[in-house]
Here is the input.
Amino acid sequence: MRVAVYPGTFDPITNGHIDIIARSARMFDRVIVALAVNSAKHTLFSEEERFALAAESLQAHANVEVKRCSGLIVEFAAAEGALAIVRGLRAVTDFEYEMQMALMNRKLREEISTIFMMPNERYSYLNSTIIRELSRYDADVKEFVPDCVVRALRAKRGKE
Ligand code: ADP
Here is the structure.
């Protein structure tokens, strides 16, 4: 069975992430979305919220599962029997950081390869930070995120 891991913060999950996950799910038997927990990043959504939003958004993909990952991604991937780590590349600006991570991960675990995929160009300028920012100013984000995320962003705003 060919397993891939797709790691990220998913604060919150966007259609760009889902595009990459859907592409991966067609190539691998199983895709595990590894939700980073205990990261130094301050997030808008709690770990539980990020998990629930990702799980709900990916319900339609039978071979995709969301799991929490608190340690090194290569160790998580090895424990899951994965042969690849999938990352999305949106623009050249992503490249340097991603290359550094991929090479370091390969040094740690030679048998696990990093695979890069480009999303549909509709999503190539999208990231979670922009979504959070747009939502803060009441902009309409429904073109970029699943419905459950639209609702969750609205609920967060209501509480501010
Ligand atoms: P991280 O904190 O690891 O950057 P993110 O949740 O921001 O976590 O992103 C996880 C992965 O998804 C990364 O590989 C990132 O490049 C990719 N990604 C983020 N937004 C998009 C998008 N709009 N299209 C394609 N890939 C994306």
In short: DSSP finds six helices and five strands in the chain. Residues 92-108 form the longest helix (17 residues).
